[in-house]
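Example with several molecule types.
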Amino acid sequence: MGSRIAETVERTKAACPLAGSITNAVTVNLVANAQLAVGGSAAMVNFADEAEGLVEIGGAFYVNMGTLVPVHAESIPAAARAAHKWGKALVLDPVGIGLGGVRTRILLDVKPFRPLIVRGNASEVIALSRLWGLEAVAEGSGPRGVDAVDGVEDALSAARALARFTGGAVAVSGAVDLVTDGSRVARCSGGSPLMTKVTGMGCSLGGVVAVYATQADPFTAALAGALAYNRAGERAAAIAYTPASFQVAFIDELYRATGEDVASQPFEIEEV
Amino acid sequence: MGSRIAETVERTKAACPLAGSITNAVTVNLVANAQLAVGGSAAMVNFADEAEGLVEIGGAFYVNMGTLVPVHAESIPAAARAAHKWGKALVLDPVGIGLGGVRTRILLDVKPFRPLIVRGNASEVIALSRLWGLEAVAEGSGPRGVDAVDGVEDALSAARALARFTGGAVAVSGAVDLVTDGSRVARCSGGSPLMTKVTGMGCSLGGVVAVYATQADPFTAALAGALAYNRAGERAAAIAYTPASFQVAFIDELYRATGEDVASQPFEIEEV
Amino acid sequence: MGSRIAETVERTKAACPLAGSITNAVTVNLVANAQLAVGGSAAMVNFADEAEGLVEIGGAFYVNMGTLVPVHAESIPAAARAAHKWGKALVLDPVGIGLGGVRTRILLDVKPFRPLIVRGNASEVIALSRLWGLEAVAEGSGPRGVDAVDGVEDALSAARALARFTGGAVAVSGAVDLVTDGSRVARCSGGSPLMTKVTGMGCSLGGVVAVYATQADPFTAALAGALAYNRAGERAAAIAYTPASFQVAFIDELYRATGEDVASQPFEIEEV
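Resulting structure tokens for the full complex:
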């Protein structure tokens, strides 16, 4: 697995692959800069035909549901449909799931197109699995803004159910990150607590995973992203102790990290 | 007052309280990062039902009218109505007041819900007081983009009229900041001229005041925000002499500042 | 030419002129901060009447087509019409040209109002010249996200055709930047390869050119902007070797640069 991760990171730097996005206004700049930092190319749009165009010319596509506006009710399902049709990975970050009616409707409209990668915190992954009727989940995980209230391990069965449904991979971010394709579960820890003090770490990870998904299968891409983020987080935390300096150092270290650097971050894979 | 300010700052760090926002695209990232830096939690939305949901689960809500799109014509008044109904503080930043028809209509629709905190530069506060018919104001303060053309003291009677109308507090930003609840006027100076060379200092202050308003009354929250900004501005200006470095240092210092640090910034309160 | 450039830069610092914008969500914060760094004033809007208001009270206007939403189909042509009517420079950055239907329709609607400055990469300038029927261009320059696939010199005849059509200036960004008013062609090189690793360098240059266009003719404004960016890029690259640090240093150096600094950057003007 290590060599596939290193190759993914290095091939991305060489190819400058495009992963277009529909993503939220809060963190869109960080998403684009993170995608550039790992060697990718970024383009953000809102209209359905534009998203379809980017799916077609790009290698993967990223959808983050943060700050929806009405046009997204059509364009997010259209992007998912296009990705499904052309067999390209769509990375879905269901930020804010449970909040408001449009978000729910969009996620139900996306379901038939089985996005190959889902990325979120534990609460979001649990809520998506429940919304899509993939398994019964205990009550009590309502929305609390955009931060997780559930632990990563609590989301394991939801994540596996989602991955089996899509045939792709699911990544759950937390103190320990969890990536699964339904039969394998990778766990990796690292990063820095300062990553929770900067907005957009999860969003930009989704964008980076989409870039990596242009060069690798969903499970490898999601794991490579998680490891790259742990690596950059640890290196940045050795340089900066406060959030804004940390964010600058984080993107710098994401840019610096070689394939070998990323692959040498600790992780464990369990067959389940 | 000093001890209430220190408590507000420290309670915020301990509680990680959520203040949702409808805020402009230019500075939304800085707003969120400033809210996280002081210990709060951030979530930005555009739809009415989402805003109502965040008002319900959060402790306060922030509305900044910078880059309006059509959906805001419904969602900003809905957020104000929800905040009014549930007795939660809504912080209103009437950026760009006077520019275009939608902005005016929204502000008129918000009026019945008396947002508990209004924050703006002198020109914006004067224009809002006039728009809401709270006092006769001399002509000549038309819009000039987003920067103030009036002095802070020129806005004193408008600010007091607004505060008496809402029953909350009004904060006017400038070289000297002014915070009033109608009967008390706090003045504090400090900060740095570089704060005018970085976009979003006022916007992100509004977001921070909303976070503080989850832990304190409107007057205390608005004053705590102004003092925290003066503190961080002064410390950042001791480190950085150019705007982008200054912005990084500013958020870092906002994060570092303790309740005691903020409460020890100079301010004076006058009963009027 | 050097003294006109130095004067443009210095007059901007003294006047704090407003150039409003309709610009994309990805880089809007950097656009505003770059405009402030060179001494200008920024205001971003989406509605037609707001854009018209900013054209009226500002000295120039910037339109960047990155992340369109439906309201822009009306407001971008309205801004162009207002600028044309009042004889103010509109700087058009046709980002993403060729992608989706709305973008094409807007650009066709803008054509009659002949924006006085067009700024883009080589592929965008070639595509705009072709879309407006200004010259036959070889096939094969379809959209590839937002990055250029054509070389700057390949865009020379398209740029000249556009400049002759508008009666203004066209700036093509690349390793060598090219600015033309149809009869003169200025070329300047410099900057840093790191400028391609940070999102929004081109977008924010457009915003800065709009600010300079409040103080100078289109050709001088576009050249001053290109030289200021080369200057800041070179200085920043001497300080920072990684993209996020580079971006911070870049805005800092843009702020520091005097009129003399900018005018002393190398450039050559050819009469054609």
